[in-house]
Write a structure and sequence with these properties.
It contains three helices and five strands, in the order αβαββββα. With about 150 residues, the protein is α+β, with helices and mostly antiparallel strands. It has one domain. β3 and β4 form a beta hairpin. α2 packs across α3.
Amino acid sequence: MRRMWMGVGAGALWLSACTHESSFRRDPNDEDALTTNIPVVKAPASTRCAAHGKSSVRASCDEALYLGTEYTRRLAVGDEVCLEGGYGEQVGPACKARAAIIDTDTNMVKLEVRSAKPDSRWFNAEMRHAWYEEGALVDLYLAERGY
């Protein structure tokens, strides 16, 4: 009789472990119409070139701003970009973090970080999605050129 109750108790314990619902964790790349986990990286309020005022650097900064804007506007779904170590250039061996354009919207692109080297600030963000406003990527272009 004792063995039977121990068997029933063990069976009940086993069944309760199987039917226990684990804590709900949302998929970080899931995009829902009502709630979304995907961050949106906003453009800065003013461009980096505006901070230079009327200095001699302003002309070259404005030219870089134009080139960065043109590069960013021409991005399309499927394009690969370098997020660190050469945004605006061909993705090559100097690139520390590579991403792919997976969606576009008005004034925005959705990036997925595909690979990152261990010394990159994007290393822990592989396979993550984020929406970037055009101005945020142009700001990245200017920052990589020292403006």
